[in-house]
Design a protein that fits this description.
52 residues; 75% helix; elongated
Length: 52
């Protein structure tokens, strides 16, 4: 569920780019990258639930 906001923001940014709203598209893509980095940090900093 952590990746869903970044996917939605990317889709909205692509839609805005196709409409010609460059500022809104760049804003959505930057927010998508920030949420994706947050999701990556959340997944990578959790301990593994398996024994290696």
């Amino acid at each position: 569920m952590l990746i869903l906001p970044s996917i939605l923001l990317t889709l909205i940014g692509t839609w805005m780019a196709m409409r010609g709203s460059r500022t809104y598209a760049l804003t959505c893509w930057v927010l998508a990258m920030v949420t994706m980095l947050g999701a990556m940090y959340g997944h990578m900093s959790d301990p593994l639930n398996i024994d290696l």
